Amino acid sequence: MSVRPGPQRLFIGGAWVEPDHGHHEVVDPASEEVVGLAPEASREQVYAAAAAAREAFASWSRTTPEERSALLARAASVMRRDSEAHARLAQAETGATTATARGMQVAVAVARFERYAKGALEPLEQALPPQINPAGPMGKAAVLGALAVRQPVGVVTCVTSYNNPWANAAGKVAPALAMGNTVVVKPAPQDPLSVYRMAAALEEAGIPPGVVNVVSGTDVAVGEAAVGSPDVDMVSFTGSTAVGQRIGEVCGRTLKRQLMELGGKGAAIVFDDADLDAAVAGIGTTFSFYSGQICTAPTRVIAQRPVYERLLAELTAYIGHLRVGDPREHGTVVGPLISAAHRERVESYVESGRKEGARVVTGGERPTVSGSGRGFYVAPTLIADCASDMRVVREEIFGPVVAVVPFDGDDPKDPRSAEEAALALADDSDYGLIDYVYSGDVARAFRVARRLRAGGVGVNTVGRNMEAPFGGFKRSGVGRDVGSYALHAYSETQAIVWPG
Hints:
alpha/beta; Aldehyde Dehydrogenase, Chain A, domain 1; Aldehyde Dehydrogenase, Chain A, domain 2; Aldehyde_DH_dom; Aldehyde dehydrogenase
């Protein structure tokens, strides 16, 4: 059953354009039914989109902050007006539960446009202390004033992830536009229709032609053209580390600016004095939120030995209360994975854990939902007795799977030995996006947090402060966004100096 009848067209230069290479089916992960037909752009159409963005940049970058703010606010209002229809489409494309589609996809997108409507009005200039320069080869003695001024980067290609087509795209497009950039959006092929709805809302709000362009396709050439076009000055990407590395190589050839939010393998350190209810609830979000398809999930639990078995028991009980099923049905907590291929990938990791000697405490099988046997479901899975060299501990699974690694308690001769053991295990990873620390000793929790090699650390919480910088250490990314940090990410800093 199609949510929106008729094949989708590309959005290039302010016009809805027929794709050169036809369409591909977008499939509902819960029912395996066709949601709609997404356009397959040609390389030439992607270059045309980038050229349109380049042409529009000259005028858009000269608009006033007030003009950009008003347009972003209007776009937010249009999206909110149609939010229920948008949530239904997001749910059909991604398999998200109703609450997630409404509250964490569309509502977050609206909030981000509203945030950057205000962000467009943030100061762009910072006065610097004057400097006294003595006479010399550069001229007479003088007092020199200086300003640091933020300028737009230019044309930004935004490559978005499949797990949240609304919030992820909004988190790139809104701050980029607020800073005076123009954009080419290349959505994930699994769920691009939502991003076209966002473009339609911007069109209705009055976005000038070429300021926002959307091109899509399953062919790798589409993404390559969106990244490699000579008209593109910056690439903002959310996705896997492997793809991010390839994009970085292309950007390096012409020194394009990059913002990369890549993979994660979040470590949740649980000390023996932790509030286990809080820890279980936080870790349990991995099983339910986006069915574990989220890079910030605490998928790697590092538990101190005195609470290890109790933590496993409570996590097992927690899983028992999670209803796996049709995301449209009331009471469903865990929906499907995005595709059959990804389901097989997740299942292969569970099997890998078994072969490497870990214990699958619960889950891992394919649950039958509504008796139909359709949909890409994997039961929430808890894997225990893991070692730090196992694939389930080292690699990002991106599914409802948690691997638990035990560590020993404090040595009486060294009260901080448990901290050292936990830190060694947590930092033994290629990733460093967000880690978590659970302890009743807040001083210890903050002490450990400051030493973790991660872009963010949650202390006794998995909650996010949406003004805090977001990004990763190591192979989890390059740069920071969210809040005002996103405005900095989508800008260049220019120095202006004059004699005082």
